């Protein structure tokens, strides 16, 4: 099995690729695709998924050390 890869996008979403399951706090499973973008800014109308609302409204550049 390939590892799941999560990429922190500059000023944007968390991009998730690979085999994974996404569940809510009650254990309900979200329908997903092999690659999804998760909202990091809190502005999406389609949470937990990114809808692009962050563009021009969110700044966060995270680098691994």
Order of helices and strands: EEE
Indicate the low-confidence ranges by residue numbers.
none
Number of domains: 1
**Which overall shape is indicated by the principal axes computed on the Cα atoms?**
globular
Number of helices: 0
Q: Supply the helix-strand structural class.
A: mainly beta
User: What's the total number of strands?
Assistant: 3
Provide mean pLDDT, rounded: 96
Description:
With 65 residues, the protein is mainly β. It has a single domain, classed as 3-Layer(aba) Sandwich (Ribosomal Protein L9, domain 1), CATH 3.40.5. Helices cover 0% and strands 18% of the residues. It is built from no helices and three strands. It has strands at residues 5-8, 14-17, 35-38. A three-stranded antiparallel beta sheet has the order 1-2-3, with no helix packed on it. A hairpin with a 5-residue loop joins β1 and β2 (14-17). The chain is globular, with a radius of gyration of 13 Å. The termini are far apart. The model has no long low-confidence stretch (mean pLDDT 96).
Question: Could you list some keywords that capture this structure?
Answer:
Ribosomal Protein L9, domain 1; globular; mainly beta; 65 residues; 3 strands
SSE layout and pairing:
Blueprint: E1 5-8, E2 14-17, E3 35-38
InterPro entries: FeS-contain_CDGSH-typ, MitoNEET_CISD
GO cellular component, one term: cytoplasm
Protein name: CDGSH iron-sulfur domain-containing protein
Short account of what is shown:
By secondary structure, the chain is mainly β. The protein has strands spanning 5-8, 14-17, 35-38.
